Amino acid sequence: MLPYGRQSVDDGDVAAVSEVLTSDWLTTGPWVRTFESELAELAGTQGAVTVTSGTAALHTAYAAIGIGPGDEVVTTPLTFVATASTATMLGATVVFADVTPDTGNLDPDSVSAVLTDRTRVVSGVDYGGHPIDVAGLRGLVADRDTLLLEDAAHSIGGSLDGTPVGSLADVTTFSFFPTKNLTTAEGGAVVATDPEVLRRAATFRNIGMVKDPDRMQRSDEGAWWYEVHELGVNYRLPDVLAALGSNQLTRLGRFKARRTELHRRYTEGLAGLDELVLPPTRDGADPTWHLYSLRIRDGRRRALFDHLRDHGIGVQVNYIPVYWHPLYAAQGYQRGMCPVAEEYYEQEISLPLFPDLLDSDVDRVIELVRGFLGG
Ligand SMILES: *Cc1c(COP(=O)(O)O)cnc(C)c1O
């Protein structure tokens, strides 16, 4: 089965990892610091905090912002459940806003309709790799005590109007899962424009341990002394994996270029079919494409999905609307709440897209889709 996504690991990655395995540091060590400064440079921020997954990055980001019971987090239903569930874990109330039909990203008008005095965060997702509508969302949160968070699990290396993903929102999270644009096996990171948020994120992922003399309540006890002021967890990314991430970063530009090429090949090959909606790129957006999201609007999504799977094409559907999950349905979230996102989901199929995919693989998928539609 041709997968819908796959990591690209080369000899250099293998060498980077094996070198760390025989060094003094298996976990937090020099490679974590290197990888974090490289990520910060890419994102255009003063720092980055690596963690053990994209889910951990979202949990850490929300904890660093300080959300809890009584706070509301507005997000999209067209995402992986973790964008919402990590806020729920902290006791916040998740409020869903609808998406725009072109990019599948949060619709500022829909967000505007659900903002309240309790909205602490608006969490957009760069669906498929396409950056969120930053101008539209910024305008909404500017005069409030509300931060803009960007779940950039799909979009590392992308930019909008020349600004890199990582500097577009107040807080941005990444995932380094193997199907994503860059991998550390499992891994993720948080970047933020406010150094205080970064500091809180670093403390949270390290069990809340404080060792900075300026921040400790007592500092004269001895060199062993540290203090815990707030709850935290162990989300530390091992040095072994940071070395893999750092080496992968040297090829991110190539990954992005190849993903762009393949994305374009699908769009050219599938053009001119009335039943299909192809993913557009808005002016100013320079996406690192994670998904090729094809939509079929004649009601035959399930049939086309099965047709492709039956022919060895490992297609996916991204995403089941988050509030359809029993976790949220049981809390009273109603189907029909975000009709555009639900329609997007009902029409969507993610076609294979990864740097080592061959042109001939893309052509085979195009032929199968065209054959299915009878043209
Ligand atoms: C993959 C993903 C996550 C979670 O990342 P993991 O590394 O798998 O925990 C969060 N949000 C989105 C949009 C994702 O695609």
From TrEMBL:
Pfam families: DegT_DnrJ_EryC1 (PF01041). Transmembrane segments: none annotated. One of its GO terms (molecular function) is transaminase activity. The keyword Membrane does not apply. The active site is at K180. Belongs to the DegT/DnrJ/EryC1 family. The lineage of its organism: Bacteria, Bacillati, Actinomycetota, Actinomycetes, Micrococcales. This is dTDP-4-amino-4,6-dideoxygalactose transaminase. Keywords: Pyridoxal phosphate. It comes from the Bacteria. The modification N6-(pyridoxal phosphate)lysine is found at K180. InterPro entries: DegT/StrS_aminotransferase, PyrdxlP-dep_Trfase, PyrdxlP-dep_Trfase_major, PyrdxlP-dep_Trfase_small. It comes from Pedococcus dokdonensis. GO terms for biological process: polysaccharide biosynthetic process. Its cofactor is pyridoxal 5'-phosphate.
